[in-house]
Amino acid sequence: MLSPPDAGDNPAMLISHTITYVKIFMAHVVQPGDMVVDATVGNGIDTVFLSQHVGPQGRVFGFDVQAPALNKARKRLQNKEAPDNVTLIHGGHECMAQRLPAEIHGQVSAVMFNLGYLPGGDGRIITRPDTICAAIDAALCLLKREGVISLVIYTGHPGGPEEAEAIDQHCSALPPDKARVMRCTMYNHPASKTRLLLIKKR
User: Fold this and answer.
1) String of b and e for 131-142 (b: at least 16 CB within 10 Å)?
2) How far is residue 63's CA from residue 154's CA, in Å, rounded to a whole number?
3) Residue 63 belongs to a domain with what CATH number?
4) 74: nearest Cα among 65, 141, 84, 121
5) Across-strand partners of 149?
6) pTM to 2 decimal places
7) pLDDT in tens, the chain (202 residues)
8) Hey, is 130 helix, strand or coil?
9) What's the number of domains the chain is made of?
10) Is residue 92 in some structural domain?
């Protein structure tokens, strides 16, 4: 099974907001020099996180269907003085396996998804069940053995519950010899409509 990360001197950090937890977890998955994917660039927050963790010798590939999102991510990377290790791709995450070089298939350490809509953008443009399920399969093709996919899933917006249900059905059907899947959520917190799915390639 997926083991929780070591929180050092503050194990209480492991019981935290979903976004905080996924950062703690993925910080232990992603290592300097790794190749990783930000499957939903958005405003570039995860892109910066990944860029800083893989360092100058690593590579980050970021996907988004909205050009304004990529522009915001570029500015954030510059403002945070992130390493020059990011390739931003204007396209859907369901096409990541086709868009990335064949030689890195099976070499990616982590793929991060943050679903829903672009904060501050057009709320009508959201991630969809059909494309996200295809993207999960594509991400599994890219991952190396023991690589991890993280999905932050929101159910509080129109279309969110349907997407979450589709992801649950899709991931519960993954062969256990191919991947292990863990779901986390906060039950007694305003963020209870946000859940985290972690998939580890076997």
Assistant:
1) ebbbbbebbbeb
2) 19
3) 3.40.50.150
4) 84
5) 111, 199
6) 0.91
7) 454 455 554 545 566 678 888 999 999 999 999 999 999 999 999 999 999 999 999 999 999 999 999 999 999 999 999 999 999 999 999 999 999 999 999 999 999 999 998 877 787 888 999 999 999 999 999 999 999 999 999 988 889 999 999 999 999 999 999 999 999 887 876 666 789 999 999 9
8) helix
9) 1
10) yes
